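Researcher: Here's a chain I'd like modeled. Treat it as a single chain, no partners, no ligands.
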Amino acid sequence: MRSGARRRSVDLGGRVLPGMSPRDLAAELHVFASGLATFELVHEEPAAPAEPDIQLFPLLADVARQQDAGCVAIPTLLPGYTDARYVSKLSIQTYGSSR
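Model: Modeled as a single isolated chain. Structure tokens:
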């Protein structure tokens, strides 16, 4: 730090892709901001599984079509967090829907 410079702190929230960890994100930030900033991981949530189990998806798509003939079921990666991150540790696959 140069003489007279003040240290500043910023809270930064980040999301990781399935299969990545918060530590992976911190490592990428260290490379990106090398020499400009330091990062400290102060809180992390469980990561989403790298390979979700979607074996029930065809059944759910059939049920959706029975309820709405025009329904098209499309698997989607939702880059947010839900309670699924907790129940997935119990080997419970979760599904969501929207209209």
